Amino acid sequence: MTKKDEKTKKMKTTKEVAIDFFRVILSVMAKNSSKSYALIVLKNIQKTLIKDFKFFKLVKVSDSTIKVDDMINSIDTKSIRALFIKVIDILGPNLLKLVIKERLDSEDIKYLNRIGVRF
Description:
6 helices
């Protein structure tokens, strides 16, 4: 892909990045434990954080899918950044941060960097 192609490529939406972000988190946790445990952990994190991040209810986590309502695209990036950072911090060690960064595609990383989420 040329530099020109990269510039004209459509930037991902918050919804697309959120789906990828939570899918990667579930995958990493499941690989190191089990899928059911990973789902329980993510759902518990959501229960905890929904008090401070009401828009987190727009993310639906189930056994086979992660669905995110289009309304998340209207949430300001400071709030999205704060949520992602909090989720990463809750999940823990730097190793997890590295694995998440490794599994997200370059467009996800660009988006997260642009809104201030650093790995």
